## 1
Amino acid sequence: MTVLVTGGAGYIGSHMVLALADAGRDVVVLDDLSTGFDWMVHPAATLIEGDVGDEALVAGIIRKHSIKAIAHFAGSIVVPESVTDPLKYYLNNTVRSRSLISAAVQNGVEQFLFSSTAAVYGDAKESPISEGAPLNPVSPYGTSKLMTEMMLRDVTRAHPLRFVALRYFNVAGADPKGRSGQSTRQATHLIKVATQAALGERSHIDIFGTDYPTPDGTCLRDYIHVSDLAQAHMLALDYLDAGGNSTVFNCGYGRGYSVHEVIEAVKRVSGVDFTVNLSPRRSGDPATLIASADRIRETLNWSPQLDDLEEIIRHALSWENSLRLRRAEAA
Ligand SMILES: NC(=O)c1ccc[n+]([C@@H]2O[C@H](COP(=O)([O-])OP(=O)(O)OC[C@H]3O[C@@H](n4cnc5c(N)ncnc54)[C@H](O)[C@@H]3O)[C@@H](O)[C@H]2O)c1
Ligand SMILES: O=c1ccn([C@@H]2O[C@H](COP(=O)(O)OP(=O)(O)O[C@H]3O[C@H](CO)[C@@H](O)[C@H](O)[C@H]3O)[C@@H](O)[C@H]2O)c(=O)[nH]1
């Protein structure tokens, strides 16, 4: 059964394509290459360059490749950008997802995985956060994703389609075999930025906010290895294949690290003491986001293999180094 992976040329989607290809599954990738790269797509997959909001294009792909399952990773992902340009997020993450879901429903797709986010919880009162916690996003990014979850909930009540929404906490690291990693040009993610500072590609790193109500005043996040996350998606596909009901799973390890702790770990692993500036808060950042991952562990039997911050950082550094070599070869 062929799986359609939207956003498969991006960071997380490309790891899903690797997991599917490693399992011998046929894969079609739909990606507009707005932030992804064609060279990130595993050669065994068919890459179609286009927009998930192009309903006629998606309908044609579903019919041509007899698609029964869609894993929807395509989207815009930068929380602070969503604060300054919310309409971009409502268009790309909500409106275009509606077109994709419509094409899926009208062409007999049965299974749908959706990349959701811990940002749907906003400033949660509980920690760790379980799936039943109140949904109060504090950024347009989180709202744009929550609206898509709600569409999926309603649509799957009315049609045979079933979905699993995976609410990722902070995704980091790279394929342990070095085949993919985060390659975004203007990356804003903490571990990516810190590894770039360690490799001298940035002069310094800013810590955004040191007055949060956390032990050291910087934000706490639950960092999950991208390959463990891809395995969670593989299990979610098996779950839907076995007839599982539509549901939502948190994806994280259940442990938080502060921005200070992450930066210290990157310095330790890289052996480089790069410059760190203390800066004001960034808008849209909740103080603490830590997952309760009991539901996914119990329901899908998910047992992460790479739950180790230093291992995540080693893989991220190694990928960053390979990007540097790639650029040097191209120059
Ligand atoms: N990175 C994280 O920490 C994180 C956390 C929670 C959720 N997510 C979600 O995971 C998904 C993947 O994120 P990522 O980190 O791999 O980002 P990414 O930017 O690397 O990947 C997104 C991919 O989608 C493609 N794309 C964007 N809009 C498209 C469109 N309209 N049509 C077709 N392709 C389009 C891009 O070219 C890119 O290849 C996103 O939906 C994001 O919201 C990411
Ligand atoms: O140069 C930097 C970059 C980040 N941070 C801080 O580090 C933490 C983590 O930031 P970042 O890596 O940008 O991730 P988040 O803003 O937490 O968002 C990520 O994690 C969310 C889920 O938690 C996802 O929904 C988003 O898509 C994904 O970008 C935050 O406190 C940031 O303020 C810094 O201090 N300096």
## 2
Amino acid sequence: MSVKPLVAGNWKMNGLKASVAEFEAIAAGYDAALKAKAELAICPPFTLVAAFAQKGLLPVGGQDCHAKVSGAHTGDTSAEMLKDAGATYVIVGHSERRTDHAETDAIVKAKTEAAWRAGLIAIVCVGETHAERTGGKTLDVVGTQVAGSLPDGTTAANTVIAYEPVWAIGTGLTPTAADVKEVHNFIRKELVKRFGADANGIRILYGGSVKPSNAAELMAVEDVNGALVGGASLKAADFLGIAAAYK
Ligand SMILES: O=C[C@H](O)COP(=O)(O)O
């Protein structure tokens, strides 16, 4: 099944009002040639979601959401609020949320359901730590996260998976193409086993130190259907360079 790649930028806790210029530069550089190669999306901090979405230039996403619609949850943002602000996507279960906010697979699953309830596409993140990789536990860990974080009813239309080895995030380190292939093939098999043939169309992004110089090799790997990009998504030239790496 041919799947149109998605290159999504996760700006994390970066960006002020002035950053709209960088967002506009990304959109301006997304020409017909790049459009033929990949879809783009930007997930800025909550404070910029509405401002970016109002530009109507590219799909925008949040970086997290609460599982509930509304209520006494100081500092949290619901999926409905993101949808109201103009978002298309929301990242859930990023390793920085799993670590900094003790998010379990059950919490990530509830957030994924919240995303669907609001009409958002969930970008569900999974990935092993360095100790888990060196301990030979990568597939066990990723398999458990995939099973526990995805609700019944996961489809290519409502969910994107992002495989992000924790040790590759922001470090400049990346797994070998063979290691990426092993994990992505494994995730694909798990998805098809549970959700049926439609799961061949679920996009599985790779994330972790993706940049223009390594994108061609990583994006060519079987079952890699795009990238979730952190640092290199903050500069239009780098982000567009990753999309341009597609043949
Ligand atoms: O969500 C994005 C990932 O955490 C990757 O971040 P990075 O590209 O800065 O390594």
